[in-house]
Amino acid sequence: MDRVFIEGLEVDTVIGAYDWEREIRQCLRLDLSFGWDNRPAAATDDLTKALDYAQVSARIQAFASASTFILVETFAERLAALLMSEFQIPWLRLKLTKPGAVSAATGVGVEIERGCL
Question: Contact, 61 vs 35, CB < 8 A?
Answer without folding.
Answer: no
